[in-house]
Structure formats: structure tokens, C-alpha cells
Amino acid sequence: MTKVARQKERLLFDGADWDFATLQRIHDACEEIALGELGLDVYPNQIEVITAEQMLDAYSSTGMPLFYRHWSFGKHFAHHEAFYRRGMRDLAYEIVINSSPCISYLMEENTATMQTLVIAHAAFGHNHFFKNNYLFKLWTDAEGILDYLDFAKGYITRCEERYGEVAVERTLDAAHALMSHGVHRYAGKTKVDLRQEEKRQQERRVHEEQVFNDLWRTVPTGPKRNATDIDIEKRRAALGLPQDNILYFLEKSAPRLRPWQREILRIVRHVAQYFHPQRQTKVMNEGTATYVHYKIMERLHERGQLSDGHYFEFLKSHTNVVFQPAYDDRRFSGFNPYALGFAMMRDIERIVTNPTNEDRDWFPDIAGKGDAMEVLRGIWADYRDESFISQFLSPRLIRQWRLFQLHDDPEIDEGILVSAIHDERGYKYVRRQLAREYDIGWTDPGIDIVDVDLAGDRRLLLQHRAPNDWFLEEHEAKLVLQHLADLWGYDVLLQEVDDAGGVVKEHVAHPRHALYSDRSVA
Amino acid sequence: MHIIDRRLNPRGKSLENRQRFLRRAKDAVQQAVRRSLQNRNIRDVLDGGEVTLPIDGMAEPSFHRGEGGLHDQVLPGNRAFVEGDIIPRPPGRGGGRPKEAGEGDGEDGFRFVLTREEFLAVFLDDLELPDFAKRRLSETEEMNPIRAGFSVSGSPSNIAIARTTRLAMMRRIALRRPKPAEIEALQREIEECDSEEKRLLLEAELKSLTDKMRRIPYVDPVDVRYRRFENEPKPVVKAVMFCLMDVSGSMSEHMKDLAKRFYLLLYLFLSQRYEKVEIVFIRHTEKAEEVDEETFFYGQTTGGTLVSSALAAMRGIIAERFDPTEWNIYAAQASDGDNSYRDESATGHLLQHEILPLCQYFAYIEVGEEESDSSMSSSPLWSLYESIRSELLPLAMRKVCRKNEIFPVFHELFQKRQAKATP
């Protein structure tokens, strides 16, 4: 056998075409490197080949393979489709779902090289991250999510049949508006188990039916207690106030909601919670996946399983993915999480294997430790974007990216102050500020439910903490508040509180009772 | 590892969501469709297409921060700044940080692609042919099975169980068929009986009862009834639309374009809305001819003008093919209003006494040059029709000069009316 022929033999594929046997070969080769050499730990993989239209479908239902029906998904579909058709936007090469088995969608248009890249990226990079990162472990239930969505879809369809599409749609509209404030930000005691959710819903229902006894209604209650008897603090404690999870509070305490509406709030809340870790780990998640695909592709090429031509094809799209335009570039639209994540992972690899003195000063724990993958695996498991950047953004990378910090104070009329740049004095400030921009506790408006006037008109009182005069966008805030009042069933008051604790702005909303039909009484 | 090929899965997974969205956005879509009609080639209308929808009403609000306040931000790619530099704020903004591309929430409208069916459904939503009076029972075609009581014969699938058992029960009661319980009771009595004589008596009785039971069946073929259906002819509305177009030399390209646009709308409307509407295309110069739609819309001829020739042709076709007692007859005529002077009386007579009495509705569109005013001075044909027009005759007249007037005029002519059309 000639040398050329032998080389050919080793290649995973030749040319752009692929079939399922090729995919299998690619997957097996990637797996060998990922598990054997990089020491990754992944959920079983399931690879699904889809068309462009199906990709658009997946886009519009938040990437999930099945989802309940709502007009807003139709809107997103139309939106994406319009962009796609006019060639203004490419579709993603893949979508990956945090589930077990881990589902990766591959577009049929991809070339064999792209499929290799996508498998390495999604089926190993993201997959490892999903399985090992502490946030995902804490907040998501990869085994249960698909079953749960199936239940949610069925439940909402049944509600539509029973209570009418309009009533369900309105409940969902309202729940979606509050979705960003429907997550628990702090860990509870129990691990989420979405598989149990369907059973729990049924059990709650059965229990309610069993203990229902109409006689209780007729039992005379004692003389009414004076309203002042009820201690405010006690009342707040009983309602679990202050509460930042608005959907949770409504589900548990809103007086006028029907049981099915509570269940819908619960479903939306669970979905929001499921995506909560992803919002906090964009840079890390993409950085991990990009680093992993880069390593795998590099190794495949070294082992002769990927020809030079295909390797170049890979490098071209890889460079596109990790491209970061400067702030004054026309293409600039904020930090590219792929670029930042990948650059940081590579930088950590350098610090671990080949540190400078500066690195030893800044990162005594990891500098020169030798085994980059071991350090990285540890980081991938234990950090989120904010802590990751505030720990591992190195001065060298700050210099390389020429990061600088702007301080925009409306009080200063002259303009915007450059408060720190990539120099000895600026590293710490730049790093802290960048980390903050990835802290959703800092970037999302913090809104708490603080009190309910149970004895009086049942008005719900919310407070928005507005540091640095960051007030809510008024028009939308009013719309959301309207939804909130509709769900709560009584007036709602939102106060915006500045740093000093003084109330600066107030928004009020009154419920529109007519919106929710009372057909469900029976 | 599993590989699953999802490409063969049923398409249109998002269809349901899309319809919900459309339902919600209906008003906005309708307006957008109207607007989009003004500036596109009418042929494209057939293919559906993009409309721009204003986003509000379909907003998905959320709590987020507005502009203003104190901001810090890290950016990449510093070239010349050093710490302490002051950069003037970008002009046009009262303050706040530099706005980045793609960051703003100024999404004032977005494009939305409608399929052909969706587009037409929206487009033709509130139109109809006026005065659909003559509904006739058609001779053959559409039959509608309706329930027509019960029959004693029929296919097993049509068996009427309730009726059958009821009849069987009636018969059993009438013929005094012994009940199983009676027989059982008798049998028990026989077992318990100790007197031989009485036992024989009882056994005889039992025998007669069992015989009777055997004789009288539980369900007899006489009881069986079948649901009967009769085919009732469906009333079918028969309608014909005559499209009369002037293609003479006095019609400029612009006028022809207007007229053709009008007829395309009409054609679209009829073919989408009414399955059973015949359309007859007649074009005329000094002589009229019936043509197919392709020729009608895209053919090129020219010549003088004799409007009466078209009306005569229409009359001929009606006499030949469309019996006015059976057919609802509609006509739409488009012309620049020129007619040869000697033809005037003939046209007037034909229209007033022969065509209009047969018609449900006669719409006349006068097309003009783009620069001219819609309230232009009256053309010969316009004055003639004006003089004919009366409360009793179903004649409607409109003038059109610009492309964007086509749809409103068309819409006005064919919108749904509460009462009888008053042109």
C-alpha cells in the first residue's frame, strides 16, 4: 500500500459530503479524544439531523424540541424567517439542549467538516459543561426536562380545551411578561426533579378533591378578629416576603387565580428556571465548547484523521466564530462570548503550562501547574461568568484586547470619562467592571414584592431598587405591571427606590377582571 | 450515541403558533397588506409576500431598565485613550452611554412573510359580490345527504340501534314473551315443590313458557331499522362576471395598466372567494372579442373604439350561454371614457334596456392619466352613463387615475353591504 493510500485510509471523510456512517465515525473519533485525552465527562449523545426550516422552528421555541403553543413563538418564527430569507442572517450551525441524552441538532446543509466541528462543539463541549457546571447541576434536571415539557404542552392544551384559548393565552401572556422575575436566585434545599412535577400536580389535585368538604363553608367562624391584631411582620413572614420571585409568589398567594392558572404560572416559572443557568454562563459555556472543539479538531488533524484542506475549512469558520471587533468597528455589538470565552480558556492554558512572572503574581494557584485540562475542568465546574472573569481575566489578556473602561456620569457635562485602561493601575478596575457586566444580579433590575395590604384593599406593593438612577423603562414597565395586576386581582403599586432608600417614582396598575373568564368556577 | 434523521418529520411544526400570531395581529396585517399593495407589481400579489408589521399590540413587555443614570462600561480595542481622558458625548443624545449597534430596542416594525393563502385571505377578507339573488337548485352536481327518518332496509353500518331495540321491546311486551326471571322463578318452584301433581303442572307450564320464549325471538328481523338518508340537491349559486376592457388606441399604457390591475384584483377576488363563478373576458376596440385570460391580461392589440360592440358581445354571450333566470350576472367595464360619437345612442340603448335589466351589478371604471384629477371633466361615456344612472338600475361608476387608488375603489365597489347595493 502506498503512503498516500494509507494516509487516505486514516481520514474520517474526504470531501464535503457525509452520510450517517460518516457522522458515526466522526462522533467516535471525537469521543475518543474528548473522553480519552481531554478527560471530559458527558451525557449520552443524541444527534438529530434537521432542515433549515426545522432550525427556525427550534429557534422560535427557545430551542426546545417540544413546547407549548403560544402566539409569541409564531412571532419569533416570522421574525427569524424574514431575516433568514433575505439573507441578512445565517442560521446557527447547531443547537444543543441541556438534557440527558444530550440532543444536538445538526443542519443538513453543513459540510462534513462543519458537522465534525459541530459535534465536537456541541456534543462534547456544551455537553460536558451542562453535566458538570455547578449552576446546571443545581438548577436544572437534564433527565427530566423533556418529559416535563411534554407534560406542560399537554397540560396547556387541555386547559385550552377546557377554559378556552383566550383565557389561557392571557394567562400565558401575563406569565411571560413576568418570566424574567420568575426564578429563584438562591438555592433551595431540595434538588429540582422535574420528573416528579407531573405527579405532584396530580397529587395536589387529588388531595384537594379528597379534603374538599362543602360543610366547612357552613361552619360558623368565630367573631372577626380586629385587623390590627395581625402583626405586619408576621404577615410578611407568612407570605414569605420580601420575595423576588414574583411568579412564585403569585402562584402561591394570588387570591383570585384558578388552580389551572397557578399551574400555568408554575410551568412558565420552571421553564424560566431551567434557562436561568444559561444566562449566567454565556461566556463560559461558549468558551468551553469553543476550546473543546478547537482541541478536538487540532488533535484530529494531528492524528491524520482530518486532511489539511478540511482543517483549513475548519480554521476559517473558527476564526469567524471567535472574531471580536473593536469598539469603533462598524460590526461591534458588544463582547462576543465565543471570542472572550475562548481567549480566556487559551490564556488559562498558557498560564498553567507556560507562565510569566506576572502570571505567577496574579494567579499563584494555577500558574505553572502543568496540566491545563485538569485546571480547566475544575474551572468549568465551579464558576459562572461573573466569578470566572473576576478571577481569571489576566493582565496579559486585558492588554491584548486593549480593554478600557468608560465612566458616563450625566452630571459631568464635558463628556464621558475614560476611567481605566489596560495599564498597571487599570487592570483591577477593568476586570471588576467587566465581571459586573456579566452578573445578572447587577444587570437585571432587582424587583421585590415587599408587602400586601391583606387587611385593607389587598394592594400589592413592589419595590424596584434603582442604584445609580437606573429606572425602569416606563412604557414597558406599565404593561408588565398591568399583567401583574390582572394576575393578582387587585391593585398593584410599584415603587422605584434610589440608593438612599427614598421613593423616587411610583407606578400603579388596576386589574382588568373581565380578562379572565369565570367559566372555570365549576 | 444515536443519530436521528428528523428531516422527514412533518413540516409546519410552527404552523399553529403562526396562526395564533396572525389571529392576534389581524388588524395590523390587514393594514399592512393594503399598504403594500400600493407599491408592488400586482402580479406579485398572487405570490403573497412580505409585509411590514408595526410591532406594537404584539409586544412582549418585560421589566428592564430605561436609559439614563450612571454607567460604567468596558470596551475592547482602545487605540489612543489614556486614563482621565474625556470623550465628548455623541451628538443628538442628552446623555447616557454611547449607543452600540444592535443594542437599541427601537424595533419599530418587522417584516413578515405571508403565504399566498394567508395574504389573499387577509386581502379579500371583507369583500363579496353584491345582491346574490338568484339561487337555483342545480340539476345534478352537489348533493347533500340529509337524515330522512328510518327504513327497514339498509347497510349494516347505518343500523339504528336505539330504534331497533325499542321496537324489539315493544314486540316482546305485546306478544308477552316470558321474561328469563319468570322462568327461573318457575324452575325454583319446581325444585322446591313436593307434591307430584303440582310439579307436573308446573313443568307443563314451564315447557309452554320456554316454547313461547323460543317462538318469540329477543330481536326479530322485523324490528331492525336503519337510518335513512336522502340526497337533497344543494342550492348552487351560479354567477358569471363579464370583464369588458377597452384596449383601443386612445388608452395609454398607464390606463391599460390601471385597467389590468383592476381586473386582476377582480379575477383574484372571484377565483379565491367563489368556486362557481364563471368569468368571461371581453376586450374591444371597434369590434369586440371574447378572449381567454392570458390574452386578456397580456395580449397586445389596438384600434378604434366602439363601446357598443362589447355590450353587444356580452348580450350575445348571455343569450347563448347564461340564462338570466338562472344566473347571477355581473359586469365590470373599464375604459378611458372615449367612444365614437355615432356609437353613443346605440351604447346607451343597449346598456339601459338590454344589459342592465339582466345584471345584478354593473361596475364602470373610468381610468385616467396619472397627472389628471379624479374629478376630471366628464368624458363622453361618463356623461352617457351618468344620464342613464338611476336609483333602480344597478350601475356603479368610479374614476381611477393613480395606482394607489385602485384598491380603495375596488374595495368600495365590492365591499359587503348591509342592504341592497345603492350605487
UniProtKB/TrEMBL annotation, chain A:
Residue ranges constituting the SpoVR protein-like N-terminal domain according to the UniProt record: 17-441
Annotated ranges, domain SpoVR-like C-terminal: 445-499
InterPro entries: Spore_V_R, SpoVR-like_C, SpoVR_N, Ycgb-like
Pfam families in the record: SpoVR, SpoVR_C
NCBIfam families for this protein: PRK11767.1 (NF008737)
Name the record gives this protein: SpoVR like protein
Protein species of origin: Xaviernesmea oryzae
From TrEMBL, chain B:
Region (Disordered): 83-106
Domain of life: Bacteria
Compositionally skewed regions (Basic and acidic residues) per UniProt: 97-106
InterPro entries: UPF0229 (IPR006698)
NCBIfam families tied to this protein: PRK05325.1-2, PRK05325.1-3
Family: Belongs to the UPF0229 family.
Protein name as it appears in the record: UPF0229 protein SAMN02982989_5799
Organism per entry: Xaviernesmea oryzae
